[in-house]
Write a structure and sequence with these properties.
By secondary structure, this protein is mainly β. It folds into 2 domains: 78 residues, no CATH class; 147 residues, Immunoglobulins (Immunoglobulin-like, Sandwich). It contains 2 helices and 14 strands. The strands form 4 sheets. Strands 6, 9, 10, 11, 13 and 14 form a 6-stranded mixed sheet that branches. A 4-stranded antiparallel sheet has the order 1-4-3-2. Strand 13 and strand 14 form a beta hairpin. The N terminus is likely disordered.
Length: 246
């Protein structure tokens, strides 16, 4: 498409020009998945703004239709060009984001600590999560346009726990489920020891959060890359003191 081809100067059609302008500030809409062009039929009358100062017979007016990352959003506009513009190559990175948008990526499915549990100051707490495609991965989806297919696969690479007592714990895995045979041992993969009770916290419990980082690898259309997404879950943790029986 040469410098005289349909471009940013094209005027919206059927009232869609306002939509097009509003979306110029939206990064994802700057990278359409696919654009198609066709000759406007009938051609606009002489003097129409769609001619961009040219006269009928000097080139022609074409209709550009672009589909963006949100598959429900299609923007159409008209503009003048010396010849039928060529559709740009499909953007694999945009297709990758479209594939990610198809996935249901959730926050961690916290198994421990439990909201109904009661834990003790100084006693090692073992933290772990249940694993599924939606809460831990792998989670895979594909998106296609213009004969190009991109496949993305997401998996949680780490979980950062904010314990509610001002401390943070980063776990590079789902954690290890506690077994009674472990006694007072600390978790080998993901754990925490509270140094004070939650009596002074709101509701008498610490407000803990677990934030998972989804690492998403994609490939297709002769390209490959990586994306990240974050998701969060919450749990309230009651921490008490050891009760001494006399």
């Amino acid at each position: 498409m040469d410098a005289n081809a349909l471009g940013g100067g094209g005027r919206g059609r059927s009232g869609n020009d306002q939509t097009s302008r509003n979306n110029d500030s939206n990064d994802k809409n700057k990278n359409p998945v696919q654009c198609n062009y066709k000759l406007a039929d009938p051609q606009p009358p002489a003097g129409s703004l769609d001619w961009e100062g040219h006269k009928p017979g000097d080139g022609a007016v074409y209709v550009q239709t672009c589909q963006y990352l949100d598959s429900a959003l299609t923007v159409e506009r008209m503009g003048w060009s010396t010849e039928l513009p060529q559709a740009p190559a499909v953007n694999p990175a945009a297709l990758a984001q479209q594939a990610v948008d198809k996935m249901r990526l959730l926050g961690p499915d916290i198994a421990s600590p439990r909201a109904a549990g009661r834990y003790t100051v100084g006693v090692p707490m073992w933290m772990w999560v249940h694993r599924s495609a939606e809460t831990y991965g792998p989670n895979t989806a594909s998106a296609s346009a213009g004969g190009v297919t991109v496949t993305a696969t997401a998996k949680v690479s780490k979980i950062v726990w904010q314990m509610g007592d001002g401390t943070s714990v980063t776990c590079n895995g789902p954690g290890t489920p506690y077994q009674a045979s472990e006694g007072m041992a600390q978790s080998p993969t993901c754990g925490h020891v509270y140094s004070k009770t939650s009596a002074g916290a709101q509701g008498g419990k610490y407000q803990a959060t677990a934030t998972s980082t989804w690492t998403i690898g994609w490939q297709g259309g002769g390209a490959a890359g990586q994306l990240t997404e974050n998701r969060q879950s919450n749990v309230q943790v009651a921490i008490g003191e050891v009760q001494v029986v006399r």
